[in-house]
Amino acid sequence: MDLKSNTSPVVTDPAPMTQSRLGIHSALMPYSPTGATFSPTLFLTIPRKKPGILDDVRSNTWLDAMKSSSPTHSKKNKDSNAELTANESDLAYRIWMLKYPSALSSFEQITNYAKGKRIALFLDYDGTLSPIVDDPDRAFMSGAMRATVRNVAKYFPTAIISGRSRDKVYDFVGLAELYYAGSHGMDIMGPVRSVSDDYSCIKSTDKQGKEVNLFQPASEFLPMIDEVFRSLVELTKDITGAKVENNKFCVSVHYRNVDEKSWSIIGESVDELLKHYPRLRLTHGRKVLEVRPVLNWDKGKAVEFLLESLGLKNCDDVLPIYVGDDRTDEDAFKVLREGNKGYGILVSSAPKESSAFYSLRDPSEVMEFLKCLVSWKKSSGFSN
Ligand SMILES: O=P(O)(O)OC[C@H]1O[C@H](O[C@H]2O[C@H](CO)[C@@H](O)[C@H](O)[C@H]2O)[C@H](O)[C@@H](O)[C@@H]1O
């Protein structure tokens, strides 16, 4: 193992000053701890005191955010406070699809655009390749999905980008021919290729002994994340159904199996604990609170890193496609949309705002879409 250099995208605790509602003041200047050299493009500044750590909460309270964190949570009609009927939900979904058309019914449009281009595929895991289940340790993907992903990877460079630890998502997927990014992109194993100096990579070997590049921008957070993981296990041990998952560079606090009456206790406990860790922040997933380093790094940045590692960055003839279901996938959708680079496909069975271009209802439609890509590639005689 050969350590190339030791740069870090982390900025720690600057001097106190006024803060925005989200806890990060736009006027804060990057601050480097002694001795470290940083790339300014990777910085996030961290305020010493934060009014609220739930930085991606778009609703009024974190309890609202917890309630709205999964499309399976029943929707209320604002006026009557009654739950939407099946017909109303279906209509709402169909109206929503005018804005986010099905990637299956728009397949011809997608492939017309892809003609003459090299597709690079980025796939989220939970809720995209495997259905959402109550026990996070049992979120297995089906054999059919595995075969489909294996097949698609024969034709297109394919990477999995997950909130899980890289090892765990690899164990679930089990395909050596893919690239993997765990911990919401904070742990990437990619091909050996020179990448820009912004990225400080470690040369390593994968499970098959092949030489790879390892990029772990949050490595200095490991001891802190371990400590927080242990505290969260202790804090939630008496809450029936709560589960804390160590995802290496981030921690997930699951409340899917917790009685809704106890959700506020979970939220408060995490909130209280994180007051002692200003270098960590909280984001929301599907019935899960995600504790992660304050770092200007996310799934969008991971896509850019992987494109560069694969020699596909800034190439007019490359079409990246990212398929995901979670709020954390929005960072990747944004990168593709803003740079007009490629397509985000949101997996959702309920209407929600997104930066994706297209939609798919569930993992079975994802599988269908991947199969269509393979058939299209085969029928186009590999000329595209
Ligand atoms: O980025 P992803 O691959 O989508 O990972 C996001 C989180 O997924 C997992 O939690 C979610 O799926 C579980 C299994 O279906 C479900 O029980 C849970 O409620 C969901 O939030 C995973 O356990 C988390 O660690 C990931 O961060």
UniProtKB/TrEMBL annotation:
E.C. code: 3.1.3.12
Pathway: Glycan biosynthesis; trehalose biosynthesis
UniProt keyword terms in alphabetical order: Hydrolase, Stress response
Keyword Disulfide bond: no
Top EC class, one word: hydrolase
Record CDD domains: HAD_TPP (cd01627)
UniProt xrefs under Gene3D superfamilies: HAD superfamily/HAD-like
Cofactor list: a divalent metal cation
Gene Ontology biological-process annotations: trehalose biosynthetic process
Positions of transmembrane segments: none
Reaction(s) catalysed by this chain's protein: alpha,alpha-trehalose 6-phosphate + H2O = alpha,alpha-trehalose + phosphate
Family statement: Belongs to the trehalose phosphatase family.
PANTHER family, sorted: TREHALOSE 6-PHOSPHATE PHOSPHATASE, TREHALOSE-PHOSPHATE PHOSPHATASE A
Entry protein name: Trehalose 6-phosphate phosphatase
Species assigned in the record: Nicotiana attenuata
Gene label: TPPA_1
